[in-house]
C-alpha cells in the first residue's frame, strides 16, 4: 500500500514547523541551483522565514542586478497591458513602497554580509561570490590608496624642491650682503686711516755750542751799548774765559 498524500496546511507545532522549514528550504535552494546548472537558466530565490529572516539564492553574481532586471521587465509589461492611459498616469504607491522596502532590506543584508555577519544561511556559491566581491573591492581600495600615496609623495617632493631653491636663493642673498658689508667696512677703514695721519713729530731740542751762546751774547751786548767802564770790561773778560774754555778742551781733544 502506497504512501498517502500529505495534506498541505500550516504545521501547528512550532518545533516541527521550524524543522520542516529548514529541510524544505535546503531542498528548494538545491533545486534552484540544479535548474540553473542543468538548464543554464538565470534563477533567483528569495525566502523569508516566519520571523522575517531572509534566505536567498541567485545564479548571478549579485541579487541587485536580478531585481533591477525584474523591475524593468515588470514595468514594461505593465505599460503594455494597462487598460487606459489614465491608469498609467496614476502611480501605484503600494507597489513602489514594497519595492523600496525590499531594496532597503537587501542593502542592509548585503551590508551585514560585507561585515562578516549573518553568513549562516548563505550557500557555498554565495560565499564565493561574496568573497570575490570583497576581493574586488579590496583591489579598488588598495589602488586608490596607492594613488593617493603617490600623489602625496610627489607633492612632498615638489615642496622639498621649492624649499631647497628658496634656501639657495636666500644663501646667495646673504653672501652678496656680506660682500657688500665687507667692502663698505674696508672703505671706511681706509678713510679712517687717511684722516688719522699723525702730524710730524717735533725734533728733539739741541742745545747750541757754548761758544756760539757766548758769542751771540757778546754780540748782543756790544750792539746794545748799555754797559760801560769796569763792569763791562770785567763781564767781557769773564765771557771770554767761559767761551775759550770749551775751545781749549776741544783743541786738546784733537791734540791728544
UniProtKB/TrEMBL annotation:
One of its GO terms (biological process) is flower development. One of its GO terms (molecular function) is RNA polymerase II transcription regulatory region sequence-specific DNA binding. It holds the Pfam family K-box. One of its GO terms (cellular component) is nucleus. Residues 90-180 form the K-box domain. The keyword Transport does not apply. Residues 124-194 form a coiled coil. It comes from the Eukaryota. Its main location: nucleus. Keywords: Coiled coil, Developmental protein, DNA-binding, Flowering, Nucleus, Transcription, Transcription regulation. InterPro entries: MADS-box/MEF2_TF, MEF2-like_N, TF_Kbox, TF_MADSbox. This is Transcription factor MADS-box superfamily. It comes from Arabidopsis thaliana x Arabidopsis arenosa.
